[in-house]
Amino acid sequence: MLPTWLTEEYLQPRLRAYYKDDGLKVLKIWAKPATGKGENFVGIMTRIHVDYQLGDGSEQKKSFIVKQALPEDVPQAKVFFEYDLYTREMDMYEFVLPKLKELLAEAGLVGKLTADAIAVDRQYSTMILEDLAPYKYVNADRVKMLDLAHTKLTVEMLAKFHAAAIILKQRHPELLTKCFSTHFFSRDKKAYTEVYLGIFKVFLKFINGHPNLKQSYGAKLEKLWPHIMEYGARVYDVAEGELQTLNHGDCWTTNIMFQYDEAGIPQTVVAIDFQFSNCTSPANDLHYFFTTSLREEVRNKEPELVEHHYNTLKANLERFSYQGMFPSLQEYQLQFERRRFMSLMAHLFKPFMIYNGSEETSDFSSLYKETPEGLRFQKSVYESEVVLRSATKLLAILDSKGLLDLQ
Predict the structure, then answer these.
(1) How many CB atoms within 10 Å of residue 382?
(2) What sign does the dihedral 338-342-344-350 (CA atoms) show?
(3) Whether 90 and 14 share a structural domain
(4) Is residue 337 part of a domain?
(5) Where residue 280 falls among pLDDT bands split at 50, 70, 90?
(6) Do 288 and 314 belong to one domain?
């Protein structure tokens, strides 16, 4: 359904400004939902089709993505409003991403970073974005997760984004307003505490349902449970001398899109969905991405992927003639290691991200609340060999590093 205010009269001046054509006339608009059920808990996405005539008389048909904030009466909306998610994403598309695009072009780092914003409307908490489908950008399979070729491309894209953002922070610090210091574990916010404590409890129930895992980790995880928000917050704290930049903040399979060649090999990648972007260590983006989106055999290549990100980031910054502080590889590896708790926090969402069963939900709270629908959904999501293998491996790593003990 089109919002009632999204009319030809509304869209015409915005398309004129975007295409720099004062003679452009919008002839017709119609719409389809842009995502399937359960694919987007944070906003409403609609694909609109627009017929318009250019100033020179020629006619065009194009599609755009309209992304709206959830209505305030939707239960999870209050969580997203408290964390400035909508303001933040509008700031990203209106101010930050266009500036990053400009900086990358200046350094000769070509290629698309994301979809352009045609219009950002704060009155309606709405963005009208370029539709990437006509450029043949598609999502990879979130259930199968990513192979090495997809992973390396994404790591390179993140290194490009992180490098441009380091320069942005130097030259235009005013663009990174206070909402960019907010994250899931912000100590002055409350709503995500319920989400994380709830979802950790679901994870604990799953661990306790497997005798071997319960014996090895059950008691430790029980003790850890009350402290996870503080440990999560520490992951985002950046010490003096550590690398800090703007992160994507939610980099996983569904928020990245690829273009492929005839042989089905991914050639380019773009990022979408920037409502969780925040200023912290780039290592957080890597932990989150590696944990949620990589196939097992690729996950095993973590040390070389961290090194690949480091080398690409360094090379990109050299193209900007960057003069600021930059860590040695060993220092960067330590900064990555210091944030390993992030992999546990990201893993709490992984079963839902790679779920392929028939139990559906469109309610975000079903991920963590003990309602009949929630309990059914959680049980179904955790009945997965992949999740069991992934959790077993992750807990062994975290335990061997002492991260399941109280800090």
Answers:
(1) 19
(2) negative
(3) no
(4) yes
(5) very high
(6) yes
Instruction: Establish if 123 belongs to a structural domain.
Output: no
In whole angstroms, what is the distance from residue 162 CA to residue 289 CA? Answer: 14
Closest CA to 245 of 340, 323, 168: 168
Q: Are residues 257 and 154 in the same domain?
A: yes
Cα angle 293, 319, 108; round to 5: 80
Give the side-chain half-sphere CA count within 13 A for 56: 4
Q: What's the confidence (pLDDT) of residue 78?
A: 77
8 A C-beta contact, residue 352 and residue 384 = no
More confident residue, 70 or 380: 380
pLDDT in tens, 281-303: 999 999 999 999 999 999 999 99
Distances from the Cα of 269 to the Cα of 115, 140, 145, 227, angstroms: 11, 10, 15, 37
99 and 60 housed in the same domain: no
Q: How far apart are the C-alpha atoms of 340 and 284, rounded to whole Å?
A: 8
40 lies in the same domain as 148: no
Domain that holds residue 50: 1-69
pTM here is 0.95
Residue finishing a domain among 69, 87, 105: 69
Residue-wise DSSP of 284-342: HHHHHHHHHHB-HHHHTTHHHHHHHHHHHHHHHHHHTT--S----HHHHHHHHHTTTHH
Please check whether residue 286 lies inside any domain of the structure: yes
Q: Does residue 406 lie in a domain region?
A: no
End-to-end Cα, the chain, rounded Å: 50
Domain of 44, CATH number, reads: 3.30.360
Token pair for 207: 């661990």
